[in-house]
């Protein structure tokens, strides 16, 4: 039981490049989330999903897209990376929506030059 | 707008002593949940404790307990018998249970346990 895993752990992009971050969970959780963590700030919700095939915007969705084609996977895409997207990205999942404990992945450190 | 404030950016405590981390929040909601998460140097966030706003009794998990004061909108975390492994960033978080989904984190308190 690996819990929540994220791929890759580190990545450096040039402005304008695209990439996809992969989040996988093996706990059969319905709900999955993508957050970003910036220095001096708490985590901010980018997008979330309440089930396979569904996604919704969070607090800071601009510049990101997501997909949940399979229940266990939640992908975060950056179509045209900008330096403002330099951050640590965390994926999380939970069984019940909003009120349940969220289980977090180890994070992906992304630098956009 | 809902906000979560952690007014102590950094704290330190001697091993085996007790420390309290403060968290205040602002909301007009009546039904919500509060969480404390720990983020050790490994970076992976781990749940420490969870409190339902409708429960008056303070939550307790082994050495961790909260002082939840709903009227004052305060949710502090007490760590008893501090251990070196408690060294981490601690985040307070607030979750709505009605209307638009909101999961709001504070900016964190960096706790260092000294040997």
Description:
With 113 residues, chain A is an all-beta fold. Chain A has strands at residues 4-7, 10-13, 19-25, 31-37, 44-51, 54-57, 65-67, 73-78, 87-94, 103-104, 108-112. In chain A, the strands form two sheets. In chain A, strands 2, 4, 5, 6, 9, 10 and 11 form a seven-stranded mixed beta sheet that branches. Chain A is globular and about 35 Å long. Chain B is mostly beta strands and 115 residues long. In chain B, the strands form three sheets. In chain B, strands 2, 5, 6, 10, 11 and 12 form a six-stranded mixed beta sheet that branches. In chain B, strands 3-9-8-7 form a four-stranded antiparallel beta sheet, with no helix packed on it. Chain B has a two-stranded antiparallel ribbon with strand order 1-4. In chain B, strand 10 and strand 11 form a beta hairpin. Classes of the chains: A mainly beta (113), B mainly beta (115). The A-B interface holds A 33, 40-45, 48, 56, 59, 88, 90, 92, 97-99, 101-107 and B 4, 33, 35, 37, 42-47, 50, 52, 91, 93, 95-97, 101-108.
Short description:
The complex is a heterodimer of chains A (113) and B (115). By secondary structure, chain A is mainly β.
- C-alpha Rg of chain A, in Å? 13 Å
Give the mean pLDDT of chain A.
Answer: 93
Which two chains touch over the largest interface?
A-B, 23 and 25 residues
| Strand elements of chain B, count | 12
Indicate the mean pLDDT of chain B: 91
Low-confidence stretches of chain B: none
| SS field, number of helical segments of chain B | 0
Spatial shape of chain A: globular
Main beta sheet strand tally, sense and closure of chain A: 7 strands, mixed
Note the total helix count of chain A: 0
C-alpha end-to-end distance of chain A: 36 Å
Order of helices and strands of chain B: EEEEEEEEEEEE
| Helix-strand category of chain A | mainly beta
Kindly state the number of beta strands of chain A. Answer: 11
Q: Tell me which oligomeric state these chains represent.
A: heterodimer
Q: Give the CA-CA distance, first to last residue of chain B.
A: 41 Å
The radius of gyration over CA of chain B amounts to: 14 Å
Return the string of H and E elements of chain A. EEEEEEEEEEE
* Share of residues in helices of chain A: under 10%
Q: What can be said about the biggest beta sheet of chain B? A: 6 strands, mixed
């Amino acid at each position: 039981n690996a819990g929540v895993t994220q791929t890759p752990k580190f990545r450096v992009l040039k402005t304008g490049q695209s990439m996809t971050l992969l989040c996988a969970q093996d706990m059969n959780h319905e709900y999955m989330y993508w957050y970003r963590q910036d220095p001096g700030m708490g985590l901010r919700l980018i997008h979330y999903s309440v089930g396979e095939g569904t996604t919704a915007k969070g607090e800071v969705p601009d510049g990101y897209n997501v997909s949940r084609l399979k229940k266990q996977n939640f992908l975060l895409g950056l179509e045209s990376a900008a330096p403002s997207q330099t951050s640590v990205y965390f994926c999380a999942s939970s069984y019940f929506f909003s009120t349940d404990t969220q289980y977090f992945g180890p994070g992906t450190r992304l630098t956009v030059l | 707008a809902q906000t979560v404030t952690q007014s102590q950016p950094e704290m330190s405590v001697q091993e085996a002593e007790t420390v309290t981390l403060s968290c205040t929040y602002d909301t007009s909601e009546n039904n919500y949940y509060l969480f404390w998460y720990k983020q050790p140097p490994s970076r992976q966030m781990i749940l420490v404790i969870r409190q339902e706003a409708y429960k008056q009794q303070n939550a307790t998990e082994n050495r961790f307990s909260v002082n939840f004061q709903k009227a004052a909108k305060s949710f502090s975390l007490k760590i008893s018998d501090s251990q070196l492994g408690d060294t981490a960033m601690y985040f307070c978080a607030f979750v709505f249970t009605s209307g638009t989904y909101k999961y709001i984190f504070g900016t964190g308190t960096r706790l260092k346990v000294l040997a």
